[in-house]
Amino acid sequence: MIKDLGNAKILSTGPQSLIRDLGRFGYFSIGVPVSGPLDHKAFQWNNHLLRNDPNDSQIEINQPGLKIQFDSDTWISLAGAKCDVKVNGSGTKYFGPIKIKAGDILSFGNFELGSLIYMGISEGFQTEKVLGSRSQLQCITSSSSLNKGDLLPFFTNSTPVPSNRFAKAKWDTEYLEKTEIRVYPGFDWNHEIEKILDPAFKERLHISKLKNTMAAQLEEVFPNDISPIATAPVFPGSIQLTPSGKLICLLSDAQVTGGYPRVLQIHEEDISILAQKKPGQEVRFEKLGV
Amino acid sequence: MKYKLNLVGKNFTEITFLEEISNELLNKKTSILNLIQSSFSEEIKDIRTGFKTICIQWANDPSNGELKRVLKNHHPSNHPIHHNIWQIPVCYDPQLAPDLESFARLKNISNSEVIRLHTSSDYKLHFFGFLPGFMYLSGLDPRLFCPRKKVPDLSIPKGSVAIGGNQTGIYPSSSPGGWHVIGRSPISFFEAKSENPVWAKPGDSIRFKAISKEELEELNSGEAKPTLL
């Protein structure tokens, strides 16, 4: 079947709205990060409801202000943070599929709960693919985020999404309010680190202002004189301890190696909980066994 | 071969080699990495390396028993592996090397001695990390070892040649960084849209060749390539 392309035009955007798919695999050996979605759970849900391929690209939005106009009919789906979304100025549902007509304008207002919202589209956005992925990242794709005026192509004559598919599906926002994050002892865990981090499992911890797509640093300080390590691999979910005592929780766009001790590793399913937190919000670490 | 296996979470296994960083370790690590990749191509989601480590992220449950067996049966090959030697032009003009003079003062040697020492070593490429195309190199002359800056620079320009701790490296793209910038290279170290984004591979050697500011400008105007020696 020949597929026709329509375009979604970015009329305005806050900082750091960007295209994500599951990311780049197979290029770690040349220093390229994975750049998958920060919140896999929300991303997967949209593609599932749209009957998309799991890797079909979506927009990851982490600030109010995105306004996008579609020049053709399609289906989109929303998941992740609870955000005041409007279609042509009228409020719409928070989550799940929305039928879009040519000319419709979708605008994203305040985030009521959570910090990342995903907008999937039938068959994904057909934007530039570099090193096997459409995920936008500095040094890799032409632009590191969406900009005003960008045109995002999508297929217009894709299979219609059957409406009964959504009757029962409900996006569960419970994880957005959760503060417990399960962590495993990390690659460099030892008795000394266990002592230093003991308070981290008893206190409430807080997300600092230093949070972006690469990492979220915590406010609390854990004084230490642990030596740096010979540069070694890190992954999304690895938590590093800096000489100044800060904990850095690595996310999707983090570099592939690091020289700070890798003290903890977040349970894969709980990275979404952390990623959805805003600076100032609270988390608690729950230690899992070795 | 002495190593330990470190299991983290449900699906990570890290192999740590219990020896100092050396060219022998690099060769050993490379041959084991290739062996693991070919033995577990289906089971591995992601595999990354550092100076002394190979870390596997398994797609499903770890195959640690099988991994141990593969490592036990591994015999280092006697066939020498072919490695390239690349020559990289670097301009050490203080105008493009903002930290050269302060670095020389810190080390209590002249600018020209810094340049002489930096251009007289063969550096071994161990792996890429930090930024796409950033080469982790060993071989810096101990007389040039220098602690990183206390306050990192917000933006170090693309192509900057720098020293931090016991390492030297080149920033393939502009980035914040805490290393001392002592030179600038016109070579491109990472081309995301090229079929081969990088031209070197682990095990290759890198040599730096001092060029003038005029030569740098000339090379900047074209597509500067490293010289294969």
From TrEMBL, chain A:
Keywords: ATP-binding, Hydrolase, Nucleotide-binding. Residues 29-290 form the Carboxyltransferase domain. SMART domains: AHS2. This is Biotin-dependent carboxyltransferase family protein.
Automatic annotation (TrEMBL), chain B:
GO terms for molecular function: hydrolase activity. The keyword Hydrolase applies. Gene3D superfamilies: Cyclophilin-like. SMART domains: AHS1. SUPFAM superfamilies: Cyclophilin-like. Residues 3-200 form the Carboxyltransferase domain. It comes from the Bacteria. Keywords: ATP-binding, Hydrolase, Nucleotide-binding. PANTHER family: 5-OXOPROLINASE SUBUNIT B. This is Allophanate hydrolase subunit 1. It comes from Algoriphagus sediminis.
